[in-house]
User: Fold these one by one.
Assistant:
Number 1:
Amino acid sequence: MKVSKLVAAGLGTLAGVVAVFLYPTSTNRPAPGQADGNGSSASSGAVAGSGSGSGTGSGSGSSGSASSSSGSASSGSSSGSGASSSGSSSGSGSSGTSGSSAKSGTYTGDVVQTRWGPVQVEITVSGGTITAARAVQYPHGNGRDEQINGYALPILEQEVVSAQSDKIDAVSGATVTSDGYISSLQSAIDQAFHA
Amino acid sequence: MTTTTEAPRRAWTVQVMGMPVSIHVRGGNPHGSQARDAVERAYATLRDVDARFSPFRADSELSRLRRGELTLAAASDDLRLVERLCRTAVERTAGAFDPWRWRDGFDPTGLVKGWAVARAGELLREVDGDVLVDAGGDVLAWSRSGRPWVVGIEDPTDRSRVLARVPLLDGAVATSGPAARGAHIVDPRTGEPAAGVLSATVVGPSILWADVAATTAVVLGPAAEAWTSTLHGTSGLLVLAGGRVHRWANPT
């Protein structure tokens, strides 16, 4: 159960990604079967590398197993109906916790062909939780496609990173004023690269 | 800080809109005139937005609107655009972000900053190389080289420290805290200072919407944690009162 939830989350992630590509197909009247092909391969191939046996969620995705909000995404994409927005809420799954026994590591899904090009998704599992899901391959049609890649989970620092750090390029924090800036890490970074 | 094999890099810092804004160019020709001219235009845009949309300048277009000397219909295209974006923000946040209710009258300051930086960013797109803009703690960046910019997220309990970091290829990182600029963020729905979130960082494609979402998360307080699951196509981090950290990464 836990494992299937985990897998469903992974499927939802991929389906969410694929649904973005599928969305225009419903308006452009694609060749019959194209959307179906995309969708079903998305559902079955999502976490092919997981090897965790239990069906790798093969059915759960396409049947909209309702194990989570990812169900709507999965069914949307496999039917080609293009419910792109419905799939996105499945994202909560990617940071959700699950006590499954899935081995920690990185799993790469099958390459899914879409009319815009190949899409391939990779998930990272750590301590039974999907800590990251990202497209490792995606079409390069226009610059905005890269945003489908999504944004990485912030990496918690394992040790104190102070103003002497050379690992970072900028600091995001509550708005600094000019007074605060003088003593801030950002000012140290900026000064290092001035002129 | 740099090693010998790294791409050439240059940074500028200017105080504008009441905050230090730094622009970094990495790779390409950061010391050439193309980069310099684009950077100058970017700063000029920020100064222009400040002159027109600052509520602290009596002669700004916004101040005239606020005093009733100017109607929205007669306002500039930009001001009307900002007003529309503010209405969208109210809708998207169910009123947790409301430029009409957090201070006297209509004050879009919380949205104008992100909007202005996005505009300045458009002017910087012509620069060869990788570009990063840090506007008082909100970051907009892209990488043509494929090497990500690494953005540290400040520890709200010790601002000399970095709590986490996030690699950024193309997008924005915005952070809000309840004590930003020394003034509390007020919940426009209650009029009370927001509490429960020490800082909220949102990573997403748009600096404007990342900034609005980060502010909203602070306003929402304890409800922010669940709310982050609705932020499609973003990742981020909340530091909750008590120090617990909540992270998320939602697909598009």
Number 2:
Amino acid sequence: MGMFKTSEKLEEVLGGFFKLMADTPVIADKLLKSKLVIRFSYTDPDLVVVVDCSGEKIDVRPHDTDSKAIVEMSMSSDIAHRFWFGMVNLTKALTRKEMIAKGPIPKVLKLLPAIKPSYAMYPKYLDENGFEQYNITKAYKPPTA
Amino acid sequence: MGGYAGQILYIDLSSGRIEKKPLDMNFARKYIGGLGFGTQIYLDLIKDNPEFDALSENNPFVLMTGPLTGLKMDGVARWAVGTKSPLTGFWGDANVGGYFGARLKFAGYDGIVITGKAEKPSYIFINDDVVEIRDAQKYWGKDIYETTDELSADLKSESAKPGQVVCIGPAGEQLITFASIINNKRHAAGRTGMGAVWGSKNLKAIYASGSGNIEISDPDKLKVLKEELKTVYEESIFIDAIHASGTPAHLDVGIISGDIPIKNWQMTEWEDIDDIGPGSIEDKIFAGHKTCYGCSVACKKDAEVKDGPYKMDKGPSPEYETVGTFGTMCLNKNIESIAKANDICNRYGIDTITCGATIAFAIDCFENGLINETDTEGIKLTWGNSEAIVEMCEKIAKKEGFGALLAEGSAKAALKIGKNASDFLTTVKGLEAPMHDPRNAHGYGLAYGISPRGACHEASLDFPVEGGSMYIPEIEELAVDIEEMSSDGKAILNVACQDYGMFFSSCAIFCNLGATPLNATQALSMVNYVTGFDYTLEEIINIGKRVWYLKRGLTNFFGARAKDDMLPKRLMTEMKDGPTEGSVPDMEKMLSEFYELRGFNKDGVPKKEVLEGIGLTTLAGLIYNN
């Protein structure tokens, strides 16, 4: 059993975070320049989310299994969760098939510096949205009132 | 047997004697090729007269191919060189791709052993059976590009097949201790000053052309393996990335984990990184894809700067390490200036890692008041000053002014600058560390420390294995889950990465980039199908182990001890923020475990009985009887 018990909870947490990133200009502006449409397929529990950067705004679409994606990325929900803390060695995960990627991957790699601020955002987002139990960062200290 | 050309050339530049010795197949079986051959031949040559300076005529030089070099397959175009390093004073070697190795084998030779010193500037001409030492005075003083073009044109009519030139530039002639040897203007045997050794021997170049081919022992099985590997390569994200962007693809990944040294190893995060990343390279300087002999990966790129202060003609684009040393290390966000510095290094023939890292060291000295504009003759060596970085690069290449001091490398320059200059060094055994931070992966720290040639990410397979680009499930120690920012288990990991790595990168000479997707079964099968030998995994690991001890033993014989295995202060300073916050390798623990595993004494030298136990009696005698 992974960290998330249900697909609904996974969607609530990760889907919500994708929407936060979509509304964060320092990240979104660079993602939009890529024009990529990425489908994330998670397992244990299962969830499909499309992040569409082809328009004027980033469109996050859970359960979209139909639209044509430029990049397909598959991984377990736990790997995905750890990734957003900056705790996954992406090169190793791809080499050891913990993540499977299809499509123009060099274009995805070029987005990594753009999404780097999200690593600091994720634990904060979890704490501020009632998902504290999913915050696995030891060093992170919640903001004081 | 297949794979081998069947002869080794012995060329004595002092006497002009040229010998073609048949390759002993028992020797081939025992050492595979590359620096497996090279280190043993070198040891045999020096054992009776082992005290000499690296730049003296008594220092032999070995250039060796592997059994796969010259085959039309991905990631096997490489060849290797080795000798005593003028930069470090220890064993030095370098591994290089390109086309020269293939041509040498087509001419009928697995390697060249060069001894002595020519009376006047010379080059070696090889065209099948014709091998001559010729006058090179008309090429002496010319840069790498001019020498390559002119020699190729001058010799074109003398060989039926096109030849390949490997040569030194003015830096090698001037004995700059980090001068390189370069094939085809871009493929550099860059590290540890191999070019200066050629300069000291008055050897400007080697031209090789051959009309032969390389036999394959079992072509049918090799064909099946090549088919299998097609899918492996198609599915490899790593290959996809380096094909698209070359080695600078790592800038996008490395900045996430804190792998990239910034501001002479004082930072791991930098908001301007995108200005010199793969996207900027593509937008601003990219001018085409290039490759090595027979390799479809094509990780080499061309660059061009059409106008402005850093204008450069189309030529080799900077590799990741070069973008690191001249870019992130110096806080230089101008990619055109990095391309220009790379162009200068290639033309003069100097190692971009040592050169760029030495400039970053000098900037640190300047910013901390240890040197000033009077010392640098008006050059403001400040962080991010692109113009000054390029100017100083050229002064180093020409050995002019303050550049002459830096042309000795940062470790020797620190001694002359004095005060606390050594605080800013990033060297191990006098070799500047590459652009991968051990605070991000502690095993790199041990790898840099105990590498025979000094701080180096290619001296074993620890970097690709711990970094994640390579996966070898057949070897238990390499198949485990690795926690990068921990020092636990890194000694045993390093031992395994050295033993298998010596087979992979030094003896068979697979490319650490283009052959990254291969697992041990595939790599071993390839060697067996080509050579006709029936190596087992255990056997090649034992061969790798023996070659590693040979390299380490030579470095120990040349004077290295445990104190030389330590990392410099800059690499051991805890970062206060960023991805590696609070992470520092525990060198004491890792070295202690490593010495135990390798059977070292407390001085960092393999015990006599350990060397004798693996058949290195001559080496044991050299170390313990001198």
Number 3:
Amino acid sequence: MGRRATPEVNAGSMADIAFLLLIFFLVTTTIEKDKGIARQLPPKQDEQPPVDIKEKNIFVVTVNKEDQILADNELMDIQDIRQAAISFLDNGGDGSCAYCKGEKDLTSSDNPEKAIITVKSDRETSYKTYIQVQNELVAAYNFLRDRESERLFGFKFTKVKSAIATGDFKGNEEKAQLKLKEIQALFPMKLSEAEAKKSQ
Amino acid sequence: MSKFNKKKGGELPAVNTASLPDIVFMLLFFFMVVTVLRKDNMLVQQKLPKADQVEKLKKDRSVFIYAGKPSSRYKEKFGTEGKIQIGDKYTDINSLEFALSEARSKLIPELQGKVVVGLKVDEDTNVGLLQDVKEKLRDLNMVKIIYITAPGNDVQQ
């Protein structure tokens, strides 16, 4: 009569219950992975001030409604876009760009400062091709920026940039930001976009 | 000798499973914390194109626009033309303005000026639809956009 110890609760099925919940969450979890190609749209202006740009400083990529690609007046496969864009940006035709390693072709861009890449697309172009082209062009810029940052500072531009974005960067972040800005200035991203044409 | 033999005679002792619930609970809590239950009900197909030169999206300052063909179960009702979805419903290109400002007003006030528009567009969509959306975004002065893509790259180098 004196002993009134409460009987112990059987916790044997606790694991089962927890497993059940665990499996539910495992199945429903989608670890969010929203990444993408960032762009800044040009602000709305009524009148565009006329700018004089030499034709050789513009690299035109046209995608038609059959998803065929015309870059610099040549029919091109998507694989070759990156290399074509790299050699255009890296050309350094007027000799003012000391770090360029291109062919110094007089009919191609003067220097990276002036080089502009324009993407023209048809209204019926597929989004897939459109993104592939954008991706390749960004890759061309990233390749050149990586090359220069390795030469000047001994790190890869893209790696440090993504490390800062995710908060994994070890060391002085502000200094690294300045270095990144410097690299960006060497190859400024001048990617413009023409309005999609209506296909006939 | 018998002193030692005594213990060896029995079967293997059962593995102590008392800490199993703890371990499982730990895992459970981990998954509960990282789980984000999908907010928007997808009305359009979402097979994102692949790209590898990507940046991360800042979640707290973004509004999403989905575009693509209506998903298979809505096909009969809405046809197969590309459509735009914001939040939980289809949006017409002309009412985009209203839907976007509504989506923007749900963000915290400090970040409303720095809003980034995440465009989740199906890979089969026409660029024309995207063009219309971008035109509207320029009117609204929401010029920071990000084309959300899937990891990987189809292009062989």
Number 4:
Amino acid sequence: MPLASYALGMMDASVYAPEVFARGLPSTPQSSAVGIVPAGSIADAAAPLLALQGIGLSFGGVVALADIELSVNPGEIRAIIGPNGAGKSSLINVISGVYRPDRGHVLLDGVRYGQVPTQRLAHLGVARTFQNLALFKGLSVLDNVASGLAYKVRSNFAGQVLGIGRSRGEQRDSLSRAGQILEFLDLTAVRDRLAGTLPYGLQKRVELARALVAEPRLLLLDEPMAGMTASEKSEMASFVRAARDRFATTVVLIEHDVGVVMGLSDRIAVLDYGRKIADATPDEVRNDQRVIDAYLGVASDNEDGAGI
Amino acid sequence: MIADFDYQFFIEVLVGGLLSGVMYSLVAIGFVLIYKTSGVLNFAQGALLLFAALTFVSLVERGVPFALALVATFAIMVAIGIAIERTVLRPLTNKPPITLFMATLGLSYIIEGAAQLIWGTQVHGLDLGIEDVPLEVGGVLISQFDIFAAVVAAGMVLLLSLFFRYTRIGLSFRAVADDQFAALAVGLRLPLIWATVWAAAGLVALVAGLLWGARLGVQFSLSLVVLKALPVLVLGGFDSILGAIVGGLLIGASEKLAEVYIGDYFGGGIESWFAYVVALVFLLIRPSGLFGQKLVERV
Amino acid sequence: MAAITSDLTSAPVLPKWIAPVLLLAFAYGVVPLIGSSYLFEAILLPFLALGLAGVGLNILTGYAGQVSLGSAAFMAAGAFAAYNFNLRVEGLPLIGSIVLAGIVAAAIGIVFGLPSLRLKGFYLAVSTLAAQFFVQWALTKFSWFSNNSASGVIDAPRLSIGGLALDGAVGRYLFALTIVSILTFLAYRLVSSQTGRNFIAIRDNETAARIIGIPVLKTKLLAFAISSFIIGVAGVIWAFAYLRTVEPDGFDLDRSFQILFIIIIGGLASIRGAFFGAALIVVFPLGLSRLGGFLLGDVFDSGVLDMSQRIVLGALIILFLILEPDGLVALWDRIRRRLLFAWQST
């Protein structure tokens, strides 16, 4: 059964603009994008890029996550949904190493971690955005995005100050790649603005750009559409999809608003009170009685209109 | 050397250190009060202390009776506290904490300058009527003044605890300290609470100023006692009254012991930095501090 | 705000390097000819030294967001280190002593920056006081540092570069100007490099910076090192070119606060800001003393001057924090824009 649904996910994935799949940025050596050929064989797809095994986390007696199992295949858009306080953000913080789980392991590309090494995250090909905006307010949009490449800068400060060695090339390369991402996400018009001065929706998009510029294999999006208007949400959804298609990035996406993720995701995991209560395709989730109960069963919990 | 270790002398040093630690705690508590409610590390606490002591002494020297001078100084301190809250802190609401800190740094310059411009720069003696004759307790000599100071400080802490536990405004204070936005949302009157807290901090400054003034003489360097309170705060946490007390005792004791037993190896005078090193080393071993101040960030 | 920005774009944009180059040409070509010795001794030399110290602190505090209250300690470390290198290393050129002194200050900066790996905000600010008190104590206590002179006083050596004696007021001014210009240029290059962007990233959001792979710990220590290097060299200028005779007590906590005030008043995270702030800090006591003497006559003695200076300085800090949090630089840029706009619309 799991094999079949993985395959289904893959099929879905490749439906989106197969011709631009894994194109990457023009100047990028293709090697960074190969190695994961998402539209490949089913056997490949069965080896998850990210897997959570028995993750448990509690804060001073309050259980945030209980025995969470999750697997994410290369190239899929994987949504994790659930009502407020279901543990979604805790989960993404565990995956990105901000929290250390009390129990369980995180497998990234087959390597087991008790706690994911946050400072090595970028090198492992993982990028994330944050629920509350985490841009560098004092940097321009372009510099914010370029900072997403800081992890691979190898020139030291002296070289940069004097403009010698590999620093010039690196500087040119990261700015041009940042510029390309900005163009891709339709942000070129604001590239020189200070990030802190942008409207909320654009800041969210800049965060996506900063995460994408490193062309991560795994992209974690923590409520990328929170607080957006309906049209901004669908715009963001199309950017996420386009990003996956262009960079062959696997996307794990946390969302409160179920409606948006239905059309976007290949598979959806549903959390409630720190437990996974469903994990299936959007259609199956839509009809899952436990999911409906979690969201609608207690009607008063649904006051902010996040319905199915 | 170990064999003829003088335990009685050791205990004398230890007790002396603990008692002077109480004095550090007293200054530190003034910081904690303000930090808890408004998230400001009020560097001007030392300047307030100087201002209080200087005002009191100058009033007494001009023939104002002791009790009246005390009340008048307290009234002035409350007025200053409220004025600071109105003119400096309120316009800076929602600014980063470090900005507020720098503002209190500026404030300390103003208050120190004003204190000496108004009352002059000469050193005043301050006699609280406590004779500083050593008292013998169980074979150990203890300064009578130190005991008096410790008792006053303990009384002060007790008074503040009762105030915050049993009065309406005190309970509001605790609500604000827990969550400023929530407190605002349920309609607590923040300005009133802040004014009260600044008044309380003024009172603490007055008491600490008098005790330290009686010890060191009332003069400019009195405002430097903040520098003694800061490592206490690093150790005990900026937001914990208990931390301020325990931290003060720890710093006071270790500082005195170090000065007496290892100071000579360093050529003496190590008290200017020793407390900071103790606090830093402690934090390196136990990053969450004495009472586990919350340093975890939410992402 | 948006309107002002668009005004700017319509104004004739001069290349960025024009203003600093013109300023330098004036500072080298004109000032030495017309300046009085009072101008050099009382205004320009302290301005250059404090401005450079402000640049150093701004890298640490303004850009990297790590508040330091111990700047004077690094000035002292630089001054005393240069003195000792000059005294004890035979044949070392002056410039060598200065660079080595900067390196010593940087090393001390790294040591006292170590707490920044664990402490944040106020906890870190307070822990930098340890540097302040420790260095001051060590320099006073161990007379080796001052070659056994009484109370730790040191006298500056003769200044000369490449056989050119620079002992007069103008010579010392040119000496200071050259060092300050070079280091300021390098600092400017630094803050616009990837390393500079990493500083700002850590200041603005440390967690996000860590997650996108900026080496946070290394970058923080680097900020401490570079900042301390620059402040250390500023200390050398202070001691060798400006005062010529210094003692450890001259680098006390008040001096540290003074440098912090310079960057608050001038503008945080701005290289120019450090010089704006330093100019104000140097000129305002002189102005205040003239003004006070003029208005109050004899009542305005040095004690009163000292106190009123403290009051006005404190008030300035608070006023800037409330009214112009981006400092004199922001004020200056706004005025310049208005002027340009007015000039254009005529």
